[in-house]
Amino acid sequence: MSAPPDRIDAQTPREGDLDPDDWEAFSAEAHQALDLMIAHMRGLRAQKVWQPAPEEVRARFQAPLPRQGHDFAGLIDEFATSILPYGAGNTHPLFMGWVQGAGTAIGMVAEMLAAGLNANCGGRNHIAIDVERQITLWLAEIFGFPPEASGIFVTGTSMANLLATLVARTDALGENVRGQGLLATGRQLTGYTSQEAHGCIDKAFDLAGIGASFLRHIPVNAEGGIRLDALRAAIARDRAEGLAPAMIVGTAGTVNMGAFDDLDALADLCAQEDLWFHIDGAFGALCALSPELQPLVKGMERADSIALDFHKWLHVPYDAGFFLCRDAEAHRRAFMSSGAYLSRAPRGLAAGDIWPCDLGPDLSRGFRALKTWFTFQAFGAEKLGETIATTCRIARHLADLIAASPNFELCAPVKLNIVCFSAKGENSGALNRAIVMDLHERGLAAPSITILDGKPVIRAAILNHRTRASDMDVFIAAAAASAERMRGQGIAAFQQPDIDQGDID
Question: 96, 353, 394, 427: least CB-packed within 10 angstroms?
């Protein structure tokens, strides 16, 4: 009896087959690619933080569509010369401009394994779904949520905040809003967050159909936390005008200063006003892993939902955001839909009551949970928490260096891992911009510029697990030398109009 066509000898090449013709040769080349990346990661400290790609390199990415395939080894060489040297720099110990994770060797290999498995995690009965549910259980334990809480991986906190807004909208207006739209409800929802909250909250209100103009930006106190008196007044004013307050978005770690809202007080207010309490904890929520920092997130266990990123302070390779919801039924009501192609079976590959596609907008989803699972398993929650606390100590060291510096001054309290400072003297805003660009272009360090009280200031976000306290000594010395060089060139060399950058990460 002859074998079915799909059981023909695996060594026989077939037309249309995309597997290697020579698996042994491919294995050797793939190992060379892995060794290339390991050597790159091992040698990061000796490399420039960032360098621009030359025009001749950029021109290679304007080539026409390849009609024929290229040699794999040659493609690895092209990657090594035309892509690898010109990355964003966030893996380097002196990348401090934006709150971006640095990745790990463990995470890199886990991402490779996930790619090899190529699981679609929209649903159905396979082990990748169980791994994602495992992460939900771990987060429930970390944040003090009930074990039956619901969660889902998303691209990042921007998307997680949108999911929270949609769940809060459905919770406030009922499931009919999904089919009939906001107009049919006859109620205009409003939401509240601090003026230091990330701009993705505005975008969430826009995309949810509520309208960004109905998200109230509440003033903050001297510590950067939302002012409760102003928040209560805004809610009362909206109720008096016939609007329908629906949710408060607290922030655990603001983008500019790393400030925290009083989450316990916000939980009390939400309970009093019957509002959905969501927390944007893009990176600050993970302070819960550190006994030293855990008091900052007191009250988070009372939230209705939390958004966070594993690809920031846990250094899971991009992307790995997460949305956690206390009320699993409320989560499902906002997204679950029927379709013949999504029908469930009592057994087999189509088994399972709740699939991830019932908890968010995506049906096709990658296996983000595996690299997160590897990170927790390889390092353990205690070491991850200590790594987070260490970056905050390094930030305090940087703050001490600035306080003792004749060249610079602090511009905001250092509550977490973000240090905002400025050059002293006249035209400091323009000089700050020039210093940052000079450090970038020389490949020495990568801080960023943010705007505080209308003035451009230098912002250093200490997030990288590779960063040491001694790196801050190098950084301040380089910044001081840059300031001296810019001043020596004359004010015209660095004076520019102040422009608002908008939201930063």
Answer: 353
Scanning the structure block, which residue is given the tokens 């975008």? 203
Write down the mean pLDDT value for the chain. 94
Query: What DSSP character marks residue 85?
Result: G
Q: Report whether pLDDT(186) > 70.
A: yes
**pLDDT tens digits for range 307-353:** 999 999 999 999 999 999 999 999 999 999 877 577 888 999 889 88
Q: Phi and psi (nearest 5°) for 308?
A: -155, 165
Report CA-CA distances (Å) from 7 to 3, 24, 54, 118, 196. 6, 21, 50, 22, 61
> Which residues neighbour 306 within 8 Å (Cβ) at sequence distance 6 or greater?
139, 143, 278, 279, 281, 285, 300, 323, 324
Q: pLDDT tens digit string along 421-472?
A: 999 998 999 999 999 999 999 999 999 999 998 999 999 999 999 999 999 9
DSSP 8-state secondary structure symbol assigned to residue 355: -
Paired residues of 247 in beta bridges? 191, 276
Which residues sit opposite 276 in a β-bridge? 247
Rg (CA), the chain: 25
3-state secondary structure string across 209-228: CCCHHHEEEECECCCCCECH
All domains of the chain in start order, with CATH: 120-366 (3.40.640.10)
Residue 95: C-alpha distances to residues 44, 48, 101, 204, 413 (Å): 11, 10, 10, 29, 21
The Cα–Cα gap between 140 and 147 comes to: 6
Rounded Cα distance between 404 and 396, Å, is 12
pTM over 0.85: yes
User: Which helix H or strand E contains 203, and what residues bound it?
Assistant: helix 200-207
**Confidence band, pLDDT 50/70/90 cuts, at residue 504:** low
Pairing of strands 244-251, 448-452: unpaired
Q: What local confidence, expressed as pLDDT, does residue 495 receive?
A: 60
User: Averaged over 484-504, what is the pLDDT?
Assistant: 63
Burial state string for 16-43 with b = 16 or more CB within 10 A and e = fewer than 16 = eeeeeeeeeeeeebeeebeeebeeeeee
Residue labelled with tokens 């007080």:
265
Identify the band that residue 500 occupies on the pLDDT scale cut at 50, 70 and 90: very low
Is the separation of the CB atoms in 279 and 301 below 8 Å? no
The number of beta carbons lying within 10 Å of the beta carbon of residue 240 is: 8
Q: How far apart are CA 16 and CA 21, in angstroms?
A: 12
Strands of 418-423's sheet in order across: 408-410, 418-423, 455-461, 448-452
